[in-house]
Prior knowledge:
Layout: H1 2-7, H2 9-13, H3 15-24, H4 29-50, H5 52-55, H6 61-66, H7 68-73, H8 80-86, E1 100-103, E2 113-116, H9 118-134, E3 143-147, H10 150-153, H11 157-167, E4 169-173, H12 179-191, E5 196-200, H13 201-214, E6 223-228, H14 233-243, E7 247-253, E8 257-262, E9 269-271, E10 276-281, E11 294-300, E12 311-319, E13 332-339, E14 343-345, E15 351-353, H15 354-360, E16 367-376, E17 379-386, H16 394-411, E18 416-421, E19 436-438
Parallel strand pairs: 3-4, 3-5, 5-6, 6-7, 16-19, 17-18
Antiparallel strand pairs: 1-2, 7-8, 8-9, 9-13, 10-11, 11-12, 12-13, 14-15, 16-17
Amino acid sequence: xxxxxxxxxxxxxxxxxxxxxxxxxxxxxxxxxxxxxxxxxxxxxxxxxxxxxxxxxxxxxxxxxxxxxxxxxxxxxxxxxxxxxxxxxxxxxxxxxxxxxxxxxxxxxxxxxxxxxxxxxxxxxxxxxxxxxxxxxxxxxxxxxxxxxxxxxxxxxxxxxxxxxxxxxxxxxxxxxxxxxxxxxxxxxxxxxxxxxxxxxxxxxxxxxxxxxxxxxxxxxxxxxxxxxxxxxxxxxxxxxxxxxxxxxxxxxxxxxxxxxxxxxxxxxxxxxxxxxxxxxxxxxxxxxxxxxxxxxxxxxxxxxxxxxxxxxxxxxxxxxxxxxxxxxxxxxxxxxxxxxxxxxxxxxxxxxxxxxxxxxxxxxxxxxxxxxxxxxxxxxxxxxxxxxxxxxxxxxxxxxxxxxxxxxxxxxxxxxxxxxxxxxxxxxxxxxxxxxxxxxxxxx
Length: 445
């Protein structure tokens, strides 16, 4: 029954939307740009007519029709503070079918509220089916999901089991990543290897490290789809080694849905041009050149109930300067480098991205979980959990002696480093295990 049900998913998700995405894979760049401009023009015209906030700042209909992209780029960037302040004024006055409330992940502790309708969700589901296909997964095949969505994990047990059976899906709890739980996860994967294992990046990395430490092999997994959190190169390498399967990186958010995904050539992440218009900007609001990280600003082309025009999503990414051998002429991201809050700004003015802090710990294979926390410009703390129960002392002292000079050299001579062994590092409200947290107000989104 699950195979038959799963095979219908592209059509249950939205036959027109899925077919449009498949056609868009074969379009030339000029054709894609024309199609995207048409979709943008309709969105802007509707926002001007029906959304109080945009009615006040968008130009007349003729100007929008003549230059939709120029009109978009003339708008102020939308941030979460504006969304929380304006509230209902950002919503269409004529509600569309299936309107539902959603919230951002709340990694900073300050989630924002959004409204999304049936048309938006149909495009979102069609995009998931398309991206899944790039990984080699087909609807109805077995899938395992290392996830932390509370609405899935807290559903009544019978209801959850029925839903998982219909979807041919195994749900693994990513909130709890203690050794006993990870042993159970590995046993489930060994007993029924999925065609696709979908993971939170950090949780999947922890599970992969645990499998390698235990010497446990999990043969038969077709592919791994990393779909939340930042997937760094060393994490990809560890996950591929542990599960003997290719890793695909997918990028998206609750606010706008899936944005981009790797194809089978792994040359970068293709941005879906029918559902998103993406900008990557520097601190002065100027477009960054390929290879240079900047702030991601996204315009959702499918949410007409609450248009998000030039929304600063809070992530850092960079454009690729190359093309992909797959033939798709969709915009190509080189990579997504984490949240804006995933960087440390030193007292000397230096900005350090989370990847550098990760590299500092590469030699320390005794560290299980860790988290860097910046309390002040001159104060950073490393919280860690060892993989064993060895007494605290000598290893931490050696680590302090090695790291302190590097931290001071990079962030300023007066920077203080504290290293604390802890029993638990709780995930963020969205279920992600954050490796870097900055408490500086200027970094909060």
